[in-house]
Write a structure and sequence with these properties.
The chain is mostly helical. The protein has one domain: Orthogonal Bundle (Hypothetical protein af1432), CATH 1.10.3210.10. Helix 5 runs antiparallel to helix 6. The chain binds fe (ii) ion (FE2). The site of fe (ii) ion (FE2) has 5 residues, from helix 2. The site of fe (ii) ion has 5 residues, from helix 2.
């Protein structure tokens, strides 16, 4: 892993502190995002940065509103992400792109960039089992079709949850 990526991971881990659950989630989503990026493309560091930081507003959301709900994370996340990325000398364009994703990652349809779609699908690849009953394959197949935005995301979701390739 190169120095910038390592430093970003370390900054996210330092920010989340004892909250290993969030740290693990960020790692898992980033790994899926990198896999999807290989198929879908987009700016790699934007995808990586969005994976690492997408839920960075969750502690502030809980603190300020007493809720980790997506809409509060979307408000609280971008300023925190912006500070972390600026400290690591990310370019202004990339900081804007990452913060835009962080600020909309529970609101599909508002941003149509490849990087957004890749992050959105990567988050769902991790969260699907917690949000839906994954035991009915027919239902799950239609949920996957509805929820995921990218071809690679749908394919990887089918492979991961339904054991189907292609
Ligand atoms: Fe997430």
């Amino acid at each position: 892993m190169d120095e910038t990526k390592k430093a970003l991971m370390a900054a996210m881990e330092a920010y989340f502190g004892e909250d290993q659950k969030r740290i693990n989630h960020a790692h898992c989503v980033t790994e899926f995002a990198e896999q999807l990026w290989q198929k879908e493309g987009g700016d790699y560091l934007t995808v990586f940065g969005a994976g690492v930081l997408h839920d960075i507003g969750i502690h502030q959301a809980e603190k300020k509103y007493g809720s980790p709900a997506g809409k509060y994370q979307e408000i609280e996340g971008p300023p925190i992400a912006r500070q972390i990325l600026a400290d690591l000398s990310f370019s202004p364009e990339r900081i804007d792109a990452i913060c835009e994703i962080v600020g909309h990652h529970h609101s599909p349809g508002k941003i149509a960039t490849t990087e957004f779609c890749v992050l959105y699908d990567a988050d769902w690849l991790v969260n699907l089992k917690d949000e839906y009953d994954i035991h009915d394959p027919a239902k799950l197949a239609s949920i996957i079709d509805r929820v995921f935005l990218t071809r690679a995301g749908k394919a990887l979701a089918r492979e991961t949850y339904l054991g189907k390739t292609g």
